[in-house]
Amino acid sequence: MHELLPATPAGWLALLASYLLGAIPFGLVLGHLIGGVDIRRQGSGNIGATNVGRALGRPWAIAAFALDCAKGWAPAFFLPLWLTSESLHALRVGCGFAAVCGHVWPVYLRFRGGKGVATLCGAVIAVDPVVFLGGGAVWIATLLATRYVGLASMMMGLSFPFLAAWRLAGREYAAEVVWGTALLSALVFVRHRANIGRMLNGTEPRAGRGRVT
Fold it and tell me: Does this model's pTM top 0.85?
């Protein structure tokens, strides 16, 4: 796993920049700009796209998801291109992970953020779009089968390291991507621990049947 750590000060600065970009609470910003509301006081209190949809409607939920996805994709895709002294794929994984951590623990909001699924999607797109498409298929299949959004997100995250291992088999940077996506998958599970408890208790709402958190 040491391959995931930057080898230069510039690499560490790239991780910091990725974290700070990932920490921008676009859902909260949209709530204030569009509806004049604090989405942390609406619905589940989460700053992600689902809660934006409750407060502002589906079009703004899509906008929030796109912005949160972009803040995972942009640093993971662009910053490594400027640091030729670093391993491209290792830094992409690192920057993506830092951006997701920024969304989950944003310094601007006293480290109380969202679940990071949209930002995770952007980071994985930057690392390998095919792996993301495979995970997206898992998300859709799980949602259709169970109608649990949280479970769909967890299964998508769980699929990423396995898809990366299959997709990148034999490539010299495969281990970096597999380990990185495994860490991101673990983070998704940690952020959905409340959903896991509700599913085990039979109290987790299903998509299309009341409130989904």
Answer: yes
